[in-house]
Amino acid sequence: MRILVLNGPNINLLGTREPEIYGTLTLEKIEQELQQTAENMKIELRFFQSNIEGEIVDAIQKAKYEWDCDGILINPAAYTHTSVAIRDAISAVSLPAVEVHISNIHKREEFRKYSYIAPVCIGQIAGFGVDSYKLGLKGLVDFINA
Ligand code: CA2
């Protein structure tokens, strides 16, 4: 089984600012920990991060048509709250997807509470730091195997 782990804008800057919200976590650390988790689960991960909405749409399409992925684990970051294009791409490829967030978006500013992406995902996990990705991955893999 192969899963695309997709991170959106500014996630590449994690660990440099706002540690009270995002901890000291870096993208490299998140990917290392997920890689370890995936090896234990005997699944394969493909990692992609972009600050550009269209590149994220392209990655979702490639997950289905080039990379032969079985599912998508996505932290759309700020695009969570704005992107019809990312939502439509997930719908269009019909791959199971799980939305994850490091912070609990439901206890932050009003504008972060709405997700354009959640309605086209199996589920959403928010607020557990790097564990949001691990929990999301487990949920996604269990869903695919069911
Ligand atoms: O909590 C999450 O995982 C978010 O997806 C993170 C996004 C935010 O826009 C979402 O509402 C929730 C922000 C990602 C990175 O933001 C940084 C901010 C300061 C320094 C470095 C990264």
Task: Offer a quick outline of the entry.
The protein is of the alpha/beta class.
Reported by name, the CATH topology is: Rossmann fold
User: Which word captures the global form?
Assistant: globular
- Give me the CATH superfamily: Dehydroquinase, class II
Strand content: 15-25%
What do you see in this structure?
It contains 5 helices and 5 strands. By secondary structure, the protein is of the alpha/beta class. It has a single domain (2-145), classed as 3-Layer(aba) Sandwich (Rossmann fold). Helix 4 (84-93) links the parallel strand 3 and strand 4 (97-101). The chain is globular, with a radius of gyration of 14 Å. The mean pLDDT is 97. The structure holds ligand CA2. Residues 10-11, 13-14, 16-18, 75, 77-78, 80, 101-103, 105, 112 line the site of ligand CA2.
